[in-house]
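Z., the sequence and structure:
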Amino acid sequence: MRTVVSILLFLSCGSALPVWAEPDEIGEKKCKECHRFSLHDKKLYKGPDLFFAGNKFYKNWLTKFLQSPMVIREVNVFSGSNLLREESKAIDPHVALKEEESERVANFLMTLRLPNLELEKVNEEPLSKGESARAKVLFERTYGCISCHRALNLVGKVRGGVSGPSLINSGERLKPDWVFHWLKTPQQFMHEGRMPVYDMNEETTVLITKYILSIGKTHK
């Protein structure tokens, strides 16, 4: 019998929340060999951390990605003294899951969250043209995000570094509140890493968050 079952967790107020047990695919596909599933795990992995996947990803995107993986980061993830080691340049293809498998895994990953992450830090109001222009300068020049991340230039051509994940079409993948907190306090997600810790005020952080999520590949 599959371990992926919906268990009802009854609260004192009488309501119930669905809790998903770890699906068999996590072990069968050896997900834990490439990804960290706990903040307390100090081992180095070549894939991104997943213990906050529910904070970070949209479920619809994650389900599609698991069925048809695409390259988001062109080099493996390492931290600490391993940041520049040569083997980090190689990227292994991600395993593809069947539709039912991807649903089970995505449902489980959505339950992996940091409990005290403050929500609703970023509203849904889009950037004005002026705000977008200002945010682009902050993104590319002030903070140098383009050095590590793929983005688009003014004519829609891909540019930027590859040591971090691509931010093209990131609005389909990443939740605004997670991006906000990653920019403000990346150390709460990763104790050691390549992401700089910036002294941003909230207004600037929201501005850059909205800009990142607006980067879309509209030109070939």
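The helical segments are 24-28, 53-56, 59-67, 99-109, 129-142, 176-184, 202-214. The longest strand covers residues 6-10.

Let me know what you think.
H.
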